[in-house]
Amino acid sequence: MALLKTINITKTYATGTKPVQVLKNISFQIAEKEFMSITGKSGSGKTTLMNILGCLDTPTSGQYLIENQDVSHMTPDQLAHIRNKKIGFVFQRFNLLQDMTAIENVSLPQLYAGKKETETRKRSAQFLEIVGLSHRINHFPTELSGGEQQRVAIARALSNNPSIILADEPTGNLDSATGEKILQMFKDLNKKQGVTIIVITHDQHVAESTNRIIRLFDGKIVEDKKVR
Amino acid sequence: MNIKILLRTSVRVLKKHKVRSFLTILGIMIGISSIIITFSIGRGAEEAISSAVLGMGEGTIYIMPAEFMKRGAFRSDVAQRTKLTTIEMEKVKKNSPEIAEITPMSMTVQQLDYKQKIAQETVIGCHANMMKVNDNDIALGSFFNDYHVNQRSNVIVLGNKVAKKLFNTENPIGQIIYLNKQPCQVIGVLKHKPHYWGPRDPNDWAYIPFTVAKKLCRGLDETENEVTMVGMKPYPGVDSEVLLRKIKSILRFSYNTKPGEDDSFIIFDQQSIENVAREAAGVIKLFGLIAAAVSLLVGSIGVMNIMLVSVRERTREIGIRMAIGATQGSIRRQFLIESTVLCLFGGLIGITLGLLGQILISQAATLPVVIELTPMVISLIVTVLIGVFFGYYPAHQASQLNPVDALLERV
């Protein structure tokens, strides 16, 4: 059974006089425990696709199913619940809340899910341990290196046991050695914990390190290949 | 997300922008402190009015002759200026069984001296029931009695301040002081009577028997029965308006006043003076509350403004929160609680400042300090309502952001 399924997704922006179709009939499936990447040059539509896959945006037409549930026509609040429970985001800019410590950042999705604070603390500490930051739980983002911030973000993405992790250029703001470590962490999470991970990247090397590559060009899928 | 966490978050945000938060709530602070001050001064004034209207006594009525003045101009009929005498008093007394106590009063300023100390004070000649008429109490010794009045004994009862002026710490009872060089024995000192406004402090007065005043006081004539005023007190439960109408008709008949002619006398009653004073206090209170309301409104708009700025500044934060699962409702709630906490701080500081201001003003104006819970509770409710009402629009704006645009700060 497919974990994610898109059927003829299109996205059209009404910018200027002429509507621009950014995504054209995108159809693909992602199975559970996959580790794959969506790649393409800038302007290829990969960011728009990731926003739709992440339920941050809705398609203009077509269907998007998560675990057989059609989310393409949900209300903003329903989408918020889906994002909260089923999707974990890792961003290029890390996007941690600056006024909160590492553990508070990791706890936040759980609090939005309605969990008790004491319970979230315990869980968050566990996830920070998984990403190797047990010694940094009470540090603020500004006191952490880029790699550490991205690891906090990964712990936050994992904290509600989501169906998928969506990583948008996760190594884009990191030096290559640190980026390599983050990619290794994704690999381990996928292999050992069975987490489904989609990496959105323009970086060929990053894409090559995943197991499957979907290549976009001009809003269309031009390649969908298994790497290993 | 529970309220405790939201509260903690908003306090953290407000702490981060200390100066801005403080400036934002300035208007609220001023508004709330003026509410507290206005309420307390209003209450203080009411307290002052009801505990002793100008030192008159509860339910007391005074009659005075209509003097030379009439509606601000000199009367043309000066020659026919009417006098108030014991004859009118007796007529009122005879025809009004509702009156419990009635006394003639002569009021003149006289020189009192004791061992080189000289004081010019208002000396009131009256009957032994004076204290029942104006609700005074004896602190030391006793008031004079009917025997003193009938025997024309040279005895004097001093108001609290007069006693202090002449005797300081010495016990005045039994001492001889000189009224217009005539010896008088001090037999009593009155308790301090609260006095909140007006030029005449009742504690500066001294009382002597009416008959003695005629004999000793400069400006009074023993052969005449004229009085400065007549003081009286009705029995409890008497309808003062009915009684006043009755006194008025007795006097008009006695003075042979024709219909359409002005009264030859003025009646002061505690109730109507109290009403006037209350009205004045009410007007002061109203103005204070209007000023407070304007300040609160301006402050509230400031809060809304700063919340709009805050929403705009924190667009990315809102985007992040939405991405990890915040619903529109929880974003709205977060900003609503923030504006409410902001206003509540303003309210709490305002109440504190208001209480301080109240104590200062009460001391300056010698009004009693009345600390009441009600205006504080009202203030807190008002600030919470302001926070919710004026915070709603910015909070709603925040909740309506599109997560993608918010994340990219593309708003």
Would you kindly provide a written description of the structure presented here, covering whatever features stand out?
The complex is a heterodimer of chains A (228) and B (411). Chain A has a 6-stranded mixed beta sheet. A 4-stranded antiparallel beta sheet of chain A has the order 2-1-4-5, with helices on one face. Chain A has 228 residues and is of the alpha/beta class. Chain A is built from 7 helices and 10 strands. Helix content of chain A is 35%, strand content 29%. Mean pLDDT of chain B is 86; it is low at 71-75. Chain B has helices spanning 3-16, 18-51, 86-95, 130-134, 146-151, 160-167, 210-216, 240-254, 270-313, 315-323, 328-365, 373-399, 403-407; strands spanning 61-65, 69-70, 73-74, 99-114, 117-126, 138-141, 155-158, 176-179, 182-190, 205-209, 229-234, 265-269. Chain B folds into 2 domains: 3-52 and 275-408, no CATH class; 83-254, no CATH class. With 411 residues, chain B is an alpha+beta fold. Chain B contains 13 helices and 12 strands. In chain B, strand 4 and strand 5 (117-126) form a beta hairpin. The interface between A and B is medium-sized, with 26 and 26 residues.
Radius of gyration of chain B: 33 Å
Unreliably modeled segments of chain B: 71-75
Q: Which series of helices and strands of chain A comes N to C? A: EEEHEEHEHHHEHEHEE
Write down how many β-strands of chain A occur, each being a DSSP E stretch of 2 or more residues.
Answer: 10
Q: How are the strands of the biggest sheet of chain B laid out side by side?
A: 4-5-10-7-9-8
Backbone shape of chain A = globular
Class inferred from helices and paired strands of chain A: alpha/beta
Radius of gyration of chain A: 17 Å
Secondary-structure element order of chain B, as H and E? HHEEEHEEHEHEHEEEHEHEHHHHH
Oligomerization category of the chains in this entry: heterodimer
Strand content of chain B: 15-25%
Percent of sequence in beta strands of chain A: 25-35%
- Identify the biggest protein-protein contact and residues per side: A-B, 26 and 26 residues
Average pLDDT for all residues of chain A = 92
Distance between the termini of chain A: 21 Å
Q: What's the number of extended β-strand segments of chain B?
A: 12
What's the tally of helices of chain B? 13
